[in-house]
Amino acid sequence: MMSTTTVLVINCGSSSLKFSVLPLEGETPLLSGLAERLGLDNAAITFKDEAGKTTQLLAQPTHHCALQTLFAVLAEKALLSSLCAIGHRVAHGGSEFQRSVLLTPAVIDQIRQLAPLAPLHNPANLIGIDTALALLPALPQVAVFDTAFHQTLPPEAFTYAIPLEYRERYKIRRYGFHGTSHRFVAAEAVRLLDLDPQDHGLVIAHLGNGSSLCAVRNGQSVDTTMGMTPLEGLVMGTRCGDVDFGAMAYLATCSGQSVEALSEMANNRSGLLGLSGLSSDCRTLQEARAKGDARATLAIDVMVHRLARHLGGQFAALHRLDALIYTGGIGENSALVRELTLARLEIFGFRLDRNRNQAITGGAAGTISADDSPTVMVIPTNEEKMIAQDAARLATAPER
Ligand code: ADP
């Protein structure tokens, strides 16, 4: 049954545009899809309806045409008039945005000024925002930032130990990412575990292609593993996470590579991909590991070692620990990664229940710890739902 009130969620990249029409009541998107290869001749836009049926249309290769096509399809399906708002995912809100905001010319200008902090992402996000505002100027539109949830980090957690003047002059500090996911999962944990909203402690492990941890104290982010960019912290699909800057400086000297080339290597050719030489995909590596592939085995071991080490660090930011939560594609599905990590955390009293762990995959929520262990849960993330909720709330009560 069609809802009378829906939100369109847009996640715009430089050559792609993900979209989803979400009912305010209910879970299943009424329509979702992806426009890809924008900028190339073979651009295409794929739609998936409520029943899961997909259709593909060839698109003109611009973001403007992709959104025009999307809005035409929404009108045809009588969904355009049901929209109460559009929610845009925006990568970097710097120190300027502590929460989601209605898009105004001043806000758009601020997001544009933050582009140097996220040169690949913010300009692409702005293309989606500018185009959607041009096509549907009367509809309230909202920006939801990946960084906003972490604006509660204390200075000792967000400051790098380099000369302090760089923090003011160049805005070099830790910002953190995946904030929308961490905020959603933290709220779900409080609800599912019936915790006191004013007195709880959680550590959330968002493990996907990009991965980060977040320590949540009484609803607020107090530490996280990503930094000024999403490169810091855990071993990810193609990103190296933490690495000794001295090692990179030495590599630059030895190999003659530029800073740009090393940055490209650290972001796109490292992590699980660089270690295994096989794939950035955890599933593929688990299969190779089961067949005895030495590099796939090492890749998973390095990822798990780093994960356990950083989890220990995040616990130290809390006054109490109510639960450790796994989420994201790996966190929600990989019983192996969860088992290997918890085996390294037995010093903290963690004990896994193997049957519970094996049973939870494919978008299910549930407890995987043994009864005599601190609680460990799997909670599926839903960033789009969080964006839709923020957009709807701000569209109806803009002053809040
Ligand atoms: P993104 O960060 O791009 O949103 P996801 O959260 O979808 O990514 O996570 C993708 C990761 O989840 C990939 O490494 C993929 O292999 C992993 N994954 C998905 N399903 C499984 C599974 N059943 N077992 C192990 N890993 C899985």
Number of helices: 15
Strand content: 15-25%
Number of strands: 14
As laid out across the biggest beta sheet, the strand order is 5-4-3-2-1-6-8-7
What integer value in Å does the Rg equal?
21 Å
Helix content: 25-40%
Shape: globular
What's the helix-strand series? Answer: EEEEEHEEHHEHHHEEEHHHHHEHHHEEH
Associated small molecules: adenosine-5'-diphosphate
Distance between the termini: 31 Å
Uncertain segments are: none
Mean pLDDT: 94
Largest beta-sheet details: 8 strands, mixed
Briefly note the structural class of the backbone. Answer: alpha/beta
Tell me what you see in this structure.
The protein is α/β, with parallel strands linked by helices and 400 residues long. Helices cover 38% and strands 19% of the residues. The chain has 15 helices and 14 strands. An 8-stranded mixed beta sheet has the order 5-4-3-2-1-6-8-7. The protein has a 6-stranded mixed beta sheet with strand order 11-10-9-12-14-13, with helices on both faces. Strand 4 and strand 5 form a beta hairpin. Helix 10 crosses helix 11 (294-315) and helix 11 crosses helix 13 (335-343). It is globular and about 55 Å long. The mean pLDDT is 94.
